[in-house]
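Morning run. Coffee first, then this:
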Amino acid sequence: MFDTIVERIKQKKRTIKFPDDKISLPTNYRGLPRISESTENCNSCETKLCTNSCPTKAINYIVDTRKIKIDLGKCIFCLQCIQNCPTNTISFSKNYRLSTSTRADLFCSPDLSLSEYKLATALHKSSLKIFGRSLQLREVSAGGCNACEADTNVLNTLSFDLARFGIKFVASPRHADGILVTGPVSKNMHLALIKTYNSIPSPKFVIAVGACAISGGIFQEASEAHNGFDDENLQDIHVDLFIPGCPPHPLTILDGLLRLIGKKI
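And here it is:
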């Protein structure tokens, strides 16, 4: 027992302060994309290598404005666009705050600065009053590769200590306030997802984590999977929080969850 106490004193506190601390992210971390405001760059590029190189078709060239737009709901942050762009039009910032309340907000364009990107807002006041600014979540891994699941689960470790914010994962959907979905929703998991959603008492909410859950990611149009919540077979389920990434950084997920329940960020 004495040795244990001594070791705890030596190790000190390991839990990070969030969002008070200045976040230190790895050198190769890719956050919110930046797109050059200059139209000359894209106009001079006749090959549109960025759009052609994107494996998930997340980049579109808008003919009318002669600018490109990136769909973060499809983007897997693979850097193929940067490596193939001859004009250095696209870059990635260190901004890990990416979550939005609507699918339509998951788009980056040259006219949108980092400060103008529309981040997620809190649930309706009536819902927050019921939940008491805390969340009980049932996670559904709907055919994912386990990357998003791993970065979600790491929030339960002492470094992040998700429970200190009043958020925790529960085993039964009947004890949950909402579901957190990862993966493109494979056909084998479609019924299980629907049953889980229907088992949660109202009011309830849905969180889509990762490109696969939002749009199908790299599994778009696959014969054995749906295109995430973009799929017409899942349009009856309203998504309250979109957390893009492949996978999203744990801080991105945490930031989105706290915004959903109106915690001060």
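The CA atoms of residues 127 and 203 lie 7 Å apart. Good start to the day.
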